[in-house]
Every structure is written in structure tokens, then in C-alpha cells.
Design a protein that fits this description.
heterodimer; A: mainly beta; Sulfite Oxidase, Chain A, domain 2; Immunoglobulin-like; 11% helix; 30% strand; globular; B: mainly alpha; Cytochrome Bc1 Complex, Chain D, domain 2; 3 domains; 5 strands; elongated
Chain lengths: 416, 411
């Protein structure tokens, strides 16, 4: 084991038997209160000790994680956001999941070029500085990989919400509406035209986006959560395609081409298509349907405090717009109660929900069910399988079940 | 090939193509079914207005003139609910930004191939040449016969498995268009040396992949001319997203809230497959047999126990550097340094009959992980004037190890 300060201290504490959880007992005065602690006496870190700060070391476990057996190489792979440990809705960039097809590249603003060509009056080349001179907008959107929860199609498999639902992040983007760049180049505008977008990395990931979406809400983004994009998320410029599958959010965006047909690139034929029961496959399944999951309690977040007040919390989102309601069941879907939404009105963005309740210490089968502004209700796994069969990988937005035992330990399960 | 996105994007159905509507507020946010939201938001706006008329009117004054008063009220309500901001303005005729793309630049980057073959360069390559090139550039990952090595993608075979539970999706069994193969190999392979193949090499390699899938004969030559002679196996195998018709209509009924099922049974558990990666930083119940664990009193996980033992052993070694001056264990005596039994938790300078330096005796320190680590890293820097003439342990691992070792030594 790699010995770090944190796990040393943690393990040492376990050894000394001081990690006893549960109700704080009044067996004596708490030395943390009665004794002057070093932090109340000595001085702390000075300014500038970390010119760009990282989370305090006690949060060392809140990190992206990867499932090594999924892919042949970390260069073409994915990792997962620690959604179990986050609250609110904004995902910090440093722990937001990564998906690369040829690794994350270092592309400087100076070396950055964006070409726009095809069915346009004026094929143009923009520098990064040019992009900063266009009017820009700010929007919070979720980005979900189409394969999120994909490993769960055939049955409950990974015992952590980070792995079952962590191919998602939610950030505030600053960027130029794609429609402005299209207008700048004098793009032909018609419902049957397409906009093909392509990245600068070696995978040369390219996707075809129908013109109507391109004109609606697609952003050419250069900031996330107020700061420059991270390398792993496409620095200096990525595409933001609200509500649509993450693969279309082309990173290191280098080219935008107006075409008269979909290019049918590898990423929209071989990949990101959904095989149905009879062997046919759906293509162009861009929208991420409404989905939700309880992030705590969950396998990584067991109930440590015993019976009594309990906050059940989770995330809901829909590529069709706003989340209007989330229901929570504690008995595997027999009875449901409405959860409280952390904030309403965010479209194509994560919505936090809470059920503030009391736990009697009995086992629970926890589920959540999202509804969006179109009236769509998140389906069960059975409903999805009945509809599509079991050959699919992508677009699994089924209701998730956590079995919580009387000791507070949660497990990923499927129920009848 | 082209389609009307309307059918598949019900949410965009009402979307205005805003190229002309410069300051039009997005109507998406204010849909009729958002009555609830509007109510909450309007209430919030009203409260705010009452609380500070002056502030609201300044806000209103800042809003663009083209918007009506009603729009302004909605805008405030909208922002109170965290919804869409004002859209960026359009400039008719453009801003004059960017420069014209040169023909050489277009030729370098605009290399994608359309399904009908538009974009293919002039060139050719046959199966046998492709076989050799494939062996040289591709087989290390994809196998000599494109059958895939280890976890790397399989490029051949899998015919008639698409209706199975684990469909084998290859270039042969699944890919609908030949253009995609050419384009992908040309731009993205070989992995780690993309865009290094010549056009003729790509033609030859693609011919070989087709041959591996029994889609062409051994004497086939692929070229910009023969491209359209090749029939792919699964061209008809795709349907355009039909969820709006097949799923959305079914899954939009008012959901059941009570007595929704007769009974519930657990049918599968993740622990039955037990493939979840677990690391040292995860909650202790993530390790071992979940069904036997409690979150309330986490047992010391096996991995942690082993790690602890390793750490103590390492600490014992480090302590050799201290042993010339410090003794530990039964009958430990003061030497040039005080005995260190049960030193963790002890007040500094508290061993009787040891003559400490003034600074140590009066430090008031209690030895714990942090103070020990600080002192041992740089004794004279940490406690100016200490008698301990020891250079210090610069490595954090050594300090942690020796502290772990000292912990094991009771009075």
C-alpha cells in the first residue's frame, strides 16, 4: 500500500479504536472542547502557501476513480466523478470525470485554431483571441456519457454510485453560442443541414449535429466554473451540447463543418448506437433522458449514525429540460414519497433532491424516480429491458436500487 | 440521409431559430407547464420588490430598452429561479472576426469522408499489400486476423450475433458504411501514431479488413473507383431514434405512489459478481464481504492491518538512527536522550531525572502525530535550542513509520 499521511493517520486511528461512530456519548467532557487544541493556539498556514489551492488533505478520498478492467489502456478510457461525496449541483473541475479516446492533450491558446467551413459563404479560421471577442453566455449544464450506468444493463454489477452513475458532471460554462460563429461564416441555414464538429487530438473525434440543435443552445465554451477548462476537459475550447450525450461535446474543438448529411463517423455508427433485442440498432439517440440516483446513502456512503434523523440525497437530470419532481421509495418501489428539490428551474442541469426523514433502523430498498418538464417518468430496469432487450450499452437511465441493511451498509441490487 | 430533427427532439419543437430575434428572451423557460415555478419565482420577485423598491428599479433600468416591462418582471423572476440568462446579441452581417481559411488549410483539415464516398482521395491498395501493412502497423493490438488481442477492439467476425445478449460488433458485423472505416483508419489509427499512413496504405489496409470479414475476395483492390462496389453487411441494420414514439408516450403516465407492487424481492446483488475496484481511501465497509459488515462500527480492514504491520516494521528500522541516544522497551533507561516508552501522548520534557533543555522543558507540547512529525523533521528548526543533536528525518514516510513504531511501545 502506498503510505500517505492520510491513510497512516486514519489507520493509526482505527488501530487505537477511536473511530467509533454512532451517537456521541456524554461519557465525559470532550477534550476537543475542554483542552486547548493546537489549531487554537498555533498559527495556521500563511497566504500564498498554495498559490492555487487543492482540497484539504482530509478530503483525499474524493477523487476520480477508474475501473481498470473496462478498457485495454487508460489512454482510451474513462473514469468516474465521486458523486457520492459531493453535494449541491456544481462539479468541481478537478474531480469531474474524464473520457479520452486518445489521451488528454496539451494544446495552448497560442496554438489553438478553429476552422469553420463546408456550406458557408466564408470559410474562416479563428484564433482563441478571436473567440473572446464574440458575445458570450453563461449556462450550467450536465454532461453525461452515453455509457453512464452501461455496465448495469445485464445486472447489478458495480458496488459504488461513483461507478454506476459517475460518468456525469455539471458545470457553469462560458462560451460563444455556436449560432454566432455560423452566422459569422455565412452558414447556410436549413432544417436538413448538419454541423459536423471535430477535435484536434489524435482520436479526431467527430460528430454530426443537426442544424436545428446547433442554432438552439450549443456553446463553443472556453471557461468552466469560472476558470479555464482543464486539459482533460478540452482546454482551451470544447463544445457544449446541452442535454445530449457527452461524446458530442467535442474537446479541443478544431473544426466546424456545415454538411448536407450526417458524416456517419465511427462515433455515431460503431459506437454510441443502441442495439435492440432483434439486433437492429438505434442511431442518433442524442438526448439523455430523465434519470436520477440516490448518492447518499449508497455503497460508498453507508449510514454511520444509526437510527434517527437521516438525510437521503441524490441527483436528477434530464436532457429534455427541467426536472419537475423526484420521488423516493424506501421499500423497493411499493410506496413513494415526494422528495424536496434543492432548487427548481435549471434546464438540462443537475438538480439536487433531498428526503429529510427518520430511519427506524430497518432494512430499506432505496430508489429514486425523476420526472421532467415533458411529463416523462424515469423507467425501471424491467421497463427498459422489456422495451430494448439486454444487448444495449448506452442510455441506461433506469431506476437504481440500493439495499440498506440494518447496520446501515448499502449494496447495489436489483429487485423484482 | 437527412432527416428532420423535429421528429426526434420534441423539446426543441417550439424552438425559435433566433438569428434575427436579437433580444428575444428564450421562451423555453416560461412554458405553460412551469406554472409552479413561475408562481414561486414571481413570489420571490415580489418579496424582493417590496423589500427594496429602489434596488429593483435600478435593476430594471439596467435591462435593455427593447424589452417590455412585463418581460423585465419575468426576467427577474427567471433569474431568481436560476434559469436562462439573456441571450447574447446577434450582429447581422457578422463581426468581421477571424480570417479566410486558405485552400491548403482546408485541404489539411477537411478530410472527413461522407457515406457516399465524397471526400475520398484518389488512390488504391489491394488485400495482399494490406495484409502486410496490417501485420506491421495494426496486428499488435487488433491481431493478425483482426480478431483483437486481449481487451483491444475486435475488427472482424461476429456476424449474426447482434441479436444475442453479448453482440460482437465489428467492422464486418456492425458498421453500416465503408466510408467510416476508411475515414477512421485514415485519421485515428494506428493508435499512438495517427495520421501517419499514406492514402494508398489506408486503401490497402481497409481492403484487408474487408477481406478478414469475408466481404471481398483475396484479389480485391480498393480504390476511389471500387469504393462503391463494396456492400457492407449491416447497412440496413439501423433505425433512427424512435424513442419519442416507442418510449416517451409509454413512460409519461402519472406515476403510482402507493401499493405499486404486491411484493419486492432482491433478484441480483453486486456482491454476487464482486468486480468493484476498491482502494485504500474508500470507506472500510467497501472492502471484504459486505453482507457481514456494519457501517456503525467499522472493523479494521485486512488491507489496513497488513499496511499497519508493514509500517511498524519499517519504523523499527528507522529507529536504529535514534537508538544511539534513546532506549525503548522494558527497563529502558535515559541515555544521552530520554527513554521513549509511550512517548506518543506524553507531554514533552516530562521524563523524570532527565535533564532537558529549557526550551523542551517549558514547551508545553504534547507528542502526537503532528508535533512529533514536525520535531523529527527538523529538531532544531522546530524547537530552537533543543539539545537533540540530530539532523532530522527529511522523508515523511520515515517519520510516519517511526511514529507508528513508537505507538506500539507501551510504558
Amino acid at each position: 500500500m502506498k503510505t500517505t499521511r492520510r491513510n497512516f493517520l486514519k489507520n493509526a486511528a482505527i488501530g487505537a479504536g477511536t473511530l467509533a461512530a454512532g451517537k456521541a456519548s456524554a461519557s465525559g467532557p470532550d477534550p476537543l472542547i475542554t483542552e486547548v487544541q493546537e489549531w487554537a493556539s498555533y498559527t495556521g498556514a500563511g497566504v500564498d502557501e498554495t498559490p492555487y489551492g487543492l482540497p484539504i488533505r482530509f478530503e483525499e478520498d474524493v477523487i476520480r476513480r477508474n475501473v481498470e478492467w473496462l478498457t485495454a489502456s487508460p489512454i482510451s478510457s474513462i473514469n468516474f466523478t465521486p458523486i457520492h461525496a459531493l453535494d449541491g449541483t456544481i462539479t468541481p473541475q478537478g474531480c469531474a470525470f474524464e473520457r479520452h479516446h486518445s489521451g488528454a492533450i496539451e494544446l495552448s491558446k497560442q496554438d489553438y485554431r478553429l476552422m469553420i467551413n463546408g456550406l458557408v459563404d466564408r470559410p474562416l479560421v479563428f484564433t482563441y483571441a478571436d473567440l473572446e471577442r464574440f458575445p458570450r453566455e453563461n449556462h450550467v449544464y450536465f454532461c453525461e456519457c452515453a455509457a453512464n450506468t452501461g455496465m448495469e444493463w445485464a445486472g447489478a454489477q458495480l458496488n459504488a454510485v461513483q461507478y454506476t452513475h459517475g460518468m456525469i458532471h455539471n458545470m457553469e460554462y462560458t462560451g460563444v453560442p455556436l449560432r454566432l460563429l455560423l452566422a459569422e461564416a455565412g452558414a447556410q441555414i436549413a432544417d436538413n443541414l448538419w454541423v459536423y464538429v471535430e477535435g484536434a487530438d489524435a482520436s479526431s473525434n467527430g460528430r454530426s449535429i443537426p442544424m436545428q440543435k446547433a442554432l438552439d443552445d450549443v456553446l463553443v465554451a472556453f471557461k468552466a466554473n469560472g476558470e479555464a477548462l482543464r486539459m482533460e476537459h478540452g482546454y482551451p475550447v470544447r463544445l457544449v451540447v446541452p442535454g445530449w450525450e457527452g461524446n458530442m461535446w467535442v474537446k479541443w474543438l478544431r473544426r466546424i463543418e456545415v454538411t448536407d448529411a450526417a458524416v456517419e463517423s465511427r462515433e455515431e455508427t460503431s459506437k454510441y448506437t443502441d442495439v435492440l433485442e432483434d439486433g437492429r440498432a438505434r442511431k442518433w439517440t442524442w438526448v439523455m433522458d430523465a434519470k436520477s440516483v440516490i448518492t447518499s446513502p449508497s455503497p460508498q456512503m453507508p449510514i454511520e449514525h444509526g437510527p434517527g434523523p437521516l438525510v437521503i440525497s441524490g441527483l436528477a437530470w434530464s436532457g429534455h429540460g427541467q426536472i419537475t419532481r423526484v420521488d423516493v421509495s424506501r421499500d423497493g418501489g411499493v410506496t413513494w414519497e415526494k422528495a424536496r428539490l434543492g432548487r427548481r428551474g435549471d434546464s438540462k442541469a443537475l438538480t439536487r433532491f433531498y428526503l429529510d426523514t427518520r430511519w427506524d433502523g430497518a432494512p430499506m430498498l432505496l430508489q429514486s424516480r425523476a420526472m421532467d418538464e415533458t411529463g416523462y417518468v424515469q423507467p425501471t430496469k424491467h421497463q427498459l429491458r422489456d422495451m430494448r432487450g439486454e444487448n444495449s450499452v448506452y442510455h441506461n437511465n433506469c431506476i437504481q436500487t440500493w439495499a440498506v441493511n440494518e447496520l446501515g451498509v448499502a449494496e447495489n441490487v436489483e429487485v423484482s | 440521409m437527412s432527416k428532420s430533427p423535429n421528429i426526434f427532439l420534441p423539446v426543441l419543437g417550439a424552438t425559435c431559430i433566433v438569428l434575427g430575434a436579437a433580444y428575444g428572451l428564450s421562451t423555453r423557460t416560461y412554458k405553460a407547464q412551469e406554472a409552479e415555478l413561475a408562481g414561486i419565482a414571481a413570489q420571490a420577485a415580489q418579496t424582493r420588490a417590496e423589500a427594496s423598491e429602489a434596488r429593483v428599479s435600478t435593476l430594471l433600468a439596467r435591462l435593455d430598452d427593447v424589452q417590455s416591462k412585463a418581460d423585465q418582471a419575468i426576467a427577474i423572476a427567471g433569474s431568481a429561479a436560476g434559469s436562462a440568462p439573456d441571450p447574447a446579441p446577434d450582429f447581422s452581417g457578422g463581426l468581421g472576426l477571424g480570417r479566410a481559411a486558405l485552400p491548403e488549410e482546408l485541404a489539411a483539415w477537411d478530410v472527413d469522408i461522407m457515406p457516399d464516398g465524397r471526400g475520398l482521395p484518389v488512390g488504391r491498395g489491394d488485400v495482399l499489400t494490406g495484409d502486410e501493412l496490417f501485420a506491421e502497423y495494426c496486428a499488435s493490438c487488433h491481431g493478425d486476423f483482426a480478431e483483437g488481442v486481449d481487451n483491444w477492439p475486435v475488427l472482424a467476425g461476429g456476424f449474426d450475433t447482434l441479436a444475442d445478449v453479448d453482440p460482437v460488433k465489428t467492422v464486418g458485423s456492425y458498421w453500416p458504411y465503408l466510408s467510416t472505416v476508411w475515414d477512421y483508419v485514415h485519421r485515428s489509427m494506428p493508435f499512438g501514431a495517427a495520421q501517419t499512413l499514406t492514402d494508398d496504405e489506408v486503401y490497402a489496409i481497409v481492403a484487408y479488413i474487408l477481406y478478414s470479414n469475408d466481404l471481398v475476395e483475396e484479389d480485391f483492390e480498393l480504390s476511389h473507383e471500387t469504393f462503391s462496389d463494396v456492400a457492407m453487411y449491416n447497412t440496413e441494420g439501423f433505425v433512427v431514434d424512435d424513442r419519442a414514439a416507442t418510449e416517451y408516450t409509454v413512460w409519461s403516465a402519472e406515476p403510482c405512489m402507493e401499493n405499486c407492487k404486491d411484493r419486492v424481492e432482491i433478484t441480483r446483488r453486486a456482491s454476487m459478481v464482486n468486480v468493484t475496484p476498491v482502494d485504500d481511501f474508500m470507506h472500510p465497509v467497501m472492502r471484504g464481504d459486505i453482507s457481514k459488515q456494519s457501517a456503525v462500527e467499522p472493523s479494521v480492514p485486512r488491507a489496513a492491518q497488513d499496511a499497519m504491520a508493514d509500517l511498524v516494521a519499517a519504523g523499527e528500522k528507522v529507529f536504529k538512527k535514534c537508538a544511539s541516544c534513546h532506549q525503548v522497551g522494558a527497563g529502558a533507561k535515559n541515555r544521552s536522550g530520554p527513554q521513549l516508552n509511550a512517548v506518543v501522548g506524553r507531554t514533552a520534557g516530562s521524563v523524570e531525572q532527565f535533564r532537558y533543555s529549557k526550551v523542551m522543558a517549558e514547551s508545553g507540547l504534547v507528542w502526537d502525530d503532528t508535533t512529533l512529525s514536525g520535531f523529527l523533521e527538523n529538531p532544531k528548526g522546530y524547537l530552537k535550542g533543543t539539545k537533540m543533536s540530530f539532523r532530522g528525518l527529511s522523508k515523511e514516510e520515515d517519520r510516519m513509520a517511526v511514529i507508528a513504531y513508537l505507538r506500539t511501545i507501551s510504558p
